[in-house]
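Data availability (excerpt). All sequences and predicted token strings are deposited with the supplementary files. A representative entry, Succinylglutamate desuccinylase, is shown inline so that the format can be inspected without opening the archive.
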Amino acid sequence: MTFVDEVKKGRFLSATCDLSLPFTVGEWILESGIHCKLLQRGVLQITPIEQMSTAKDIVLSSGVHGNETAPIELIQQLAEGILLGHIEPVHRLLLIIAHPEAINNKTRFIDENMNRLFKVRNQERNIDCKVANQLQEAVNSFYGSSKAIQPEKWHLDLHCAIRRSEHYTFAISPYSHKLSRSNSLFSFIQYAKIEAVLLANDPSSTFSWFSAEYHGAQSLTIELGKVADFGENDLTLLSYFSHALMKLITESTLPISWNNDVEVYRVNRTLLKQSESFTFSFPNDLPNFTFFEEGTYLGSDKEQEFIADEKGEAVVFPNANVALGQRAALMVKKAHIIFDEQVRLCG
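Structure token line:
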């Protein structure tokens, strides 16, 4: 049984993670006329029969962190449905299960956090850098090979948080110099009942930022619950998101609306780890979006103390164990948006 044969049978995840099975490129056409193409291990391109005037080129990625399994299961379900003829997308798709080595290892990464490796092409000093380079090439090829006149580019990079959260699902909109915060993207956030969205205020080096910055994609990092092992995810908790995702890929457009049902946050500041003496004043398992009143002591790094800012702040992604120079936490505040053709913060 070849790699392509396994994928044709709908076993995209198992083929991707079976590293004893040599990868082979392959192209085939389903009975519906949908064209399938394996670009890399864990990277499957799906092209519908016809390109509509409202065509989207949609990247759906999972497994950038190998232990975040719920999104991987969702991508496998989607791939299986398409490959077996149960789902017929009307937009081009790039389905990604990103890091099989980390998935098999049941860890976020092997040597280096891969979701910090998308700023430029990396020196291939480890497997994480090598995979990040391959994913950059795949996305460049996917967007570059579109036959639509003016396709709407999208990228939803699906993750799970490593800790509990005051919001079970939330999205991060990366900061980009491109127009990457369309009202259609934020309508999807609301339609999918994602509980909160965080608007970044500085460039980063994440996968979703890469697609926004270099391709102008409507791009999000989406956190879907908390990390768990395969088979232990309650995917019913993600039913609204799954339903919205299905609508996104099988219908030409979704309704444009914003009813303020989603909590909006903006990044107030980023705490960087500058020394090994960095410490937080709160437990390691503190939930994301925990709020601190103004003046609360948050921690320290060398001689610098971190104090909650005016009118208080909430903390997202606190992690004192990151590498030196990396983000140890985001401090965020609630905000409001102007829902225009391109969404922007009030004030």
